[in-house]
Amino acid sequence: MARRTTAEVVNTASAAQWPAVNGRVRVQVQLPDALGGELLDLPTRVEDTGLGRLVVAAPGFTGDLHVVAPGLPVTVTWASHRGQLRQDFLIAEVVRRRVPSWDLAPCGEVTVQQRRRFVRVPVTGNLRLHAVPGEPRRAGDQDAGAAAEPAVTAAFVDLSEGGACVRVRRGSWLSPGRVVRTVFEVAGGPVDQLADVVRLVPDPAGTGEHDDLVLAFVEPVAAADRLRRHVMQEQIRNRRREEP
């Protein structure tokens, strides 16, 4: 059964900028104070586009039956060649069928999300990138018998409190829109953090062997304080090296 809204959309953005069907996106939903008031950031995928509406698979979360209804505002973010894009929507229809979905009506423009909120510093060292079980996948990747994607060893290019740029060998399964688990050491302790692959920079060194990935850590970032201290310490070291 579907529930509908009579709310009128105040602004319609070009659907040409939306991700394709089965493209990976994230939706942000604000819980009411009675359910904790948390801002949820949930992975899902595009089910359909057309008639000025974006249809996504309904992500499940505790309290969704009490919160999700027509008229609920949500923000959708996705990766593109321009970087991380975002747009505000209202839920126009909730479809509860075999695959529950949200029919989203845009109420704002598509914008490029600013990712330079944090200072980045050059760093050395390696990290491991792991596929996330249960992450929304493209239709061709959803076979139950599909082989697990192997962990990828990457090298840091730079690091910040909110993300990193890393170098990977060309031809890996990593691509913009994926969610990965990053595992590395910083400031004497381990970090195990989810991240969005925001952008891929092909062959920046001109060797034909490696690509760079821009990663944005998925909030909350448990090691944010430790990362911030490490970045500040690296800034101080870099200034000292530059002093005559």
Describe the structure.
The protein has helices at 64-67, 224-242; strands at residues 2-4, 24-30, 39-50, 53-57, 73-80, 83-95, 101-106, 111-112, 121-122, 126-131, 152-159, 163-169, 179-186, 189-202, 210-217. The protein is mainly β and 244 residues long. It has a six-stranded antiparallel β-barrel with strand order 2-3-4-7-6-5. It has a six-stranded antiparallel beta barrel with strand order 10-11-12-15-14-13. Strand 13 (179-186) and strand 14 form a beta hairpin. The longest helix is centred in the C-terminal third of the chain and has 19 residues, at 224-242. The termini are far apart. The model is unreliable at 1-13 and 137-145 (pLDDT under 50).
Span between termini: 72 Å
Helical element count?
2
Instruction: Name the strands of the widest sheet in spatial order.
Output: 2-3-4-7-6-5
Number of DSSP strands? Answer: 15
| Helix/strand order, N-terminal first | EEEEHEEEEEEEEEEEH
Largest pleated sheet:
6 strands, antiparallel, barrel
Unreliable stretches, pLDDT < 50, 5 or more residues?
1-13, 137-145
| Structural class based on helices, strands and sheet pairing | mainly beta
Shape: globular
Averaging pLDDT over every residue, what do you get?
A: 82
Gyration radius over CA: 20 Å
Instruction: Summarize the amount of helix as a percent range.
Output: under 10%
Quaternary state of the chains: single chain
Strand content: 35-45%
